Amino acid sequence: MDFFEQVGPAALGSRLRRLSEQMIGQAAEVYSLYHVPVEPRWFPVLYAVATQPERHVGEIAELIGQTHAAVSQVVKELVKQDLVRVQRGEADLRRSVVSLTEKGAALWPTLQQQTADVRQATEALLHETRHNLWLAIGEMEYALSRQSLASRVKAIRDQRVAAEVQIIDYAPQYQPDFKQLNAEWIERYFRLEAADLKALDHPDEYIIQRGGHILLAAYGGQMVGTCALIPMDDTTYELAKMAVSPAAQGLGIGWRLGEAAIAKARSLGAQRLYLESNTKLGPALSLYHKLGFRKTVSGPPSPYERCNIQMELPLFP
């Protein structure tokens, strides 16, 4: 079975590349018909220089939708062929502009006629197809400018993962997971402190028996995330010991844990959530902001050396 038939639209990029290579290969034959010493990949730059002379490389790149580096490389090759020249601009001596040489100018009428013939042949080719590829490419480019393919794939993946992640309540057999998940990130950026070890080694005594709760995220048969709710007073819980395994980061698990913790706090009658963090932890702070937390300066003194930011989330009925 043909690879593209088997894989389908997932191989769209590869199929477009195959079509592009096929057309570029046939374009070389077209240039030979007109005895034009130009490579197909030079054409956009040469066309821009001929129709809009005295432009610098950055402007040409913007006009034809290519990178500055790619256009710069083509310009160098065109200079070697004596088709264009690069010189200081009259209006701005600090910038080099590109223009046709005598040889390039002499070649331009033939290239214009070739372009007109190619356009007519391509329009006929498009009429032979059921779907107008030229218009479809424009639609595809617009859609991708609105939302990249990577972000579309991520949304599908996150939706699938969200359905597979289970948020479960703590049980004593999960103590090693609870400790490992937290120790892993703390030791990566800071150091384990005495207050950490009390809660991680004895979560039943220091969290559960004091009216707190621990949630864990199970995915793929493993515990990949956790967080705790620790009562501070009758109306406030601290969101603490939130961790996601590095192997599972980027899957939206932190968001799932945060939402579950907020829902749990509300069910317990909490009116406010509080947390402590460090400004070094950019992704974590971004998650907290998305969950609705905002910086506060009214928190109590922290038992942790690493804490340099306190945040809170009011919870209303």
From TrEMBL:
InterPro entries: Acyl_CoA_acyltransferase (IPR016181), Bact_Acetyltransf (IPR050832), GNAT_dom (IPR000182), HTH_MarR-typ (IPR000835), WH-like_DNA-bd_sf (IPR036388), WH_DNA-bd_sf (IPR036390). SUPFAM superfamilies: Acyl-CoA N-acyltransferases (Nat) (SSF55729), Winged helix' DNA-binding domain (SSF46785). Residues 176-316 form the N-acetyltransferase domain. SMART domains: HTH_MARR. PANTHER family: AMINOALKYLPHOSPHONATE N-ACETYLTRANSFERASE-RELATED, AMINOALKYLPHOSPHONATE N-ACETYLTRANSFERASE-RELATED-RELATED. CDD domains: NAT_SF. This is Bifunctional helix-turn-helix transcriptional regulator/GNAT family N-acetyltransferase. The keyword Transferase applies. It holds the Pfam family MarR_2. Keywords: Acyltransferase, Transferase. The keyword Acyltransferase applies. Gene3D superfamilies: 3.40.630.30, Winged helix-like DNA-binding domain superfamily/Winged helix DNA-binding domain (1.10.10.10). Residues 9-158 form the HTH marR-type domain.
